[in-house]
Write a structure and sequence with these properties.
The structure is a single chain. By secondary structure, the protein is α/β, with parallel strands linked by helices. It has 2 domains: 114 residues, 3-Layer(aba) Sandwich (Rossmann fold); 184 residues, Response regulator (Rossmann fold). The protein has a 7-stranded mixed β-sheet with strand order 14-12-11-10-8-9-15, sandwiched between helices. The chain has a 6-stranded parallel β-sheet with strand order 2-1-3-4-7-13, sandwiched between helices. Helix 3 crosses helix 10, helix 4 runs parallel beside helix 5 and helix 8 packs across helix 9. The chain is globular and about 60 Å long. The relative contact order is 0.13.
Length: 379
């Protein structure tokens, strides 16, 4: 009897507890949620993708603070981390042990093994290696700057790859236009290697100088451009010697679309008390000789792609173009040393590009670039 009585009492206590709990839950949600409910709510509200970024250099000599592609991409990465309250450790910079496609693929593998899920690859050096890597690592996202995955003449872009391209011809156009409007008549262009991006910079520079010469009603031959490819993107005393010879012979400003080799041109300009137009990013901090820079939206494009990735809306599988219409190119006017060329003139010519009223020829063939006033000396 005592056992039956105890069993009955336990059952009654249990029923009372259930009734109390039900009454509490029938309050229209007025009661405070318990800790479990809060944790579950946080899990439901959490959106987006964990972002672990790797910026990959193309060679052992490709440094982070290169004043060009790496630095521009890294600036975009750092701004993204800051705006999203992510720790610095969510982004890392990797350098290969040698400048080869095999070494770059190995480095990509190291970055992925280390936890990176989105990789930023700056420049054409990654065309061949990413052609392979995009299939080896299908769950990893890649942002290739200024190029597309390529093997020989075949371009293939998988859904995990976004190939970013910039309208270098428009940036070069703005540089050439500004130089002539500023009053320079003896111009120079020094490219690193005649790869498409550099060629478009140079051809745009010619067209901008031609457009300005026509606007100013100059005569044929009033503007001259020495035109040359250095054969590399690394600093070299030989490049300084070449630039110094140009300056000594009367060149007033050189557009150096040459990556790190631009520093060699700046050294010559400093000695000759002349001018340089920088490239890719605002290079005014590198030398007082830099009067402006023809910039690409490297930081902007990297930032945008990381944001899309975090929001699970990565736009892969094709080529994306950044030009004047989406502020993808321009001149660094805030730090410029122009004395004649005005902000208003810049805004007017930029708007003409952005609206499509001026179309710059992006051909890689010099013969396709039409000039009648500017004299080109290919050296």
């Amino acid at each position: 009897m005592k056992f039956k009585y105890l069993k009955l009492m336990v059952t009654m206590i249990f029923l009372v507890a259930v009734l109390v709990a039900c009454a509490g839950n029938d309050s229209g949600g007025a009661t405070e949620p318990d800790e479990t409910t809060e944790e579950e709510g946080e899990e439901v509200e959490a959106t987006g993708v964990d972002v672990n970024i790797a910026l990959i250099a193309h060679s052992p000599d490709s440094i982070l603070d290169d004043g060009s592609f790496n630095q521009g991409a890294w600036d975009g990465i750092q701004q993204f981390l800051s705006d999203n309250n992510l720790p610095d450790g969510n982004a890392n910079f990797f350098q290969p042990h040698e400048a080869s496609d095999e070494a770059r693929i190995d480095l990509i593998a190291d970055a992925v093994d280390g936890g990176a899920n989105i990789l930023i690859l700056p420049g054409f050096h990654f065309e061949n290696s990413l052609y392979e890597a995009q299939e080896i690592f299908p769950d990893t996202k890649f942002v290739l700057l200024d190029a597309s995955p390529r093997r020989d003449d075949e371009v293939r872009i998988e859904n995990n790859v976004a190939a970013i391209h910039y309208a270098e011809e428009e940036a070069g156009f703005l540089a050439g236009y500004a130089a002539v409007m500023e009053g320079y008549r003896e111009l120079g262009f020094m490219g690193g290697i005649a790869v498409p991006a550099v060629v478009r910079f140079g051809h745009g520079f010619i067209q901008g100088a031609e457009y300005a010469a026509a606007s100013l009603e100059l005569s044929e031959g009033d503007v001259t451009i020495n035109y040359h490819y250095l054969g590399g993107f690394a600093p070299d005393p030989a490049h300084t010697t070449t630039a110094a010879a140009w300056y000594a012979a009367g060149t007033e400003v050189i557009f150096a679309a040459a990556g790190g080799a631009g520093g060699s041109v700046m050294s010559a300009a400093e000695s000759a008390n002349t001018s340089v137009i920088g490239v890719d990013v605002d290079q005014s901090h590198l030398s007082d000789s830099v009067i402006t820079s023809a910039v690409k939206g490297l930081a902007v494009s990297v930032y945008d792609m990381l944001t899309d990735f975090m929001n699970d809306s990565f736009n892969g599988g094709g080529e994306l173009r950044f030009d004047a219409s989406n502020n993808g190119v321009g001149l660094s006017m805030d730090s410029s040393h122009f004395t004649t060329f005005t902000e208003e003139q810049y805004e007017n010519i930029f708007e003409s590009l952005a609206s499509g009223n001026i179309n710059v020829n992006s051909s890689l063939e010099m013969g396709d670039i039409s000039v009648s006033l500017v004299t080109i000396n290919e050296l």
